[in-house]
Specification:
The chain is about 50% helix and about 5% strand. A 4-stranded mixed beta sheet has the order 1-2-3-4. By secondary structure, it is mainly alpha-helical. Helix 5 crosses helix 6. The longest helix has 16 residues.
Length: about 250
């Protein structure tokens, strides 16, 4: 028996039917915590008082690498210790941004603006402020559903992108930008797999805000998709719409 493991999986048509594929989720907080202390135990002789420092910021460290694989998380932790001989959340976030950016589809933003930076749009800002409390534990226990998303339309420069950043800042959530155009690849089935991978990564980072800019341009060829690209655009949009309908993770689109 041969077992192959890895964060991503690509196969050929010949092997696809003889190799069962088991899809594991991204690591949970407990698994990340265990991976963190593997790094800590390996660096105890190099960094004085590392164990106490780690216990003091343990929750922040675990949260800072959500959405990464265990190997990627340990790489981010190790970089902080190598560069600073201490924990530096800024360095960890930069490493996380770089890893997510390498996926080619998502961009990660940690420091975003606030609602005070948005001019006008008073009704929308009021809605954003009201909905902020829907993500609290009290709201969940009471049975209030979390807001699922927001669609804005308007001329260039009227504040659509600015509002996306302001929502993430007001709700104190990381912001992920999905480039819809980069989802499409030349190989059959690759575009749909890329879309599922990006959405899975977003769910693993949740709660977060997923920003899709210029979405109408990314799906503009749906009507003629069957003739022009063998239905790829239509299938990618179908994957995305199904996910928006069925998702349970607090990802605000």
């Amino acid at each position: 028996t041969v077992i192959i493991t890895g964060p991503y999986y690509k196969t050929t048509a010949v092997l696809e039917n003889v190799m069962p594929h088991i899809d594991f989720p991204y690591p949970n907080k407990e698994e990340i915590k265990n991976a963190l202390y593997v790094v800590v135990n390996g660096a105890l002789t190099s960094v004085v008082g590392l164990e106490k420092k780690t216990q003091a910021v343990e929750k922040q460290l675990v949260s800072s690498v959500s959405g990464l694989t265990l190997g990627e998380a340990q790489s981010a932790f190790s970089k902080s210790l190598v560069v600073h001989r201490d924990w530096n959340l800024g360095t960890i976030y930069e490493q996380k941004k770089e890893i997510i950016r390498k996926s080619g589809v998502l961009d990660f933003y940690e420091n975003t603006i606030g609602l005070n930076d948005v001019g006008g749009l008073k009704n929308l800002i009021n809605w954003i402020n009201i909905r902020k409390s829907c993500f609290s534990e009290e709201a969940e226990q009471y049975g209030i559903e979390k807001p699922r998303g927001l669609l804005t339309i308007g001329m260039p420069g009227c504040g659509k992108s600015l509002v996306c950043k302001a929502i993430a800042g007001a709700w104190q959530m990381p912001l992920l930008r999905l480039d819809f155009g980069k989802l499409f690849n030349s190989l059959v089935g690759e575009s749909e797999a890329t879309a599922r991978s990006a959405l899975k990564r977003a769910e693993s980072i949740a709660p977060c805000v997923l920003w899709i800019d210029e979405i109408e341009k990314g799906v503009s060829g749906v009507a003629s998709s069957g003739k022009t690209d063998s239905g790829t655009t239509s299938r990618v949009l179908s994957t995305f719409l199904t996910w928006m309908q069925e998702k349970t993770a607090p990802v605000f689109v």
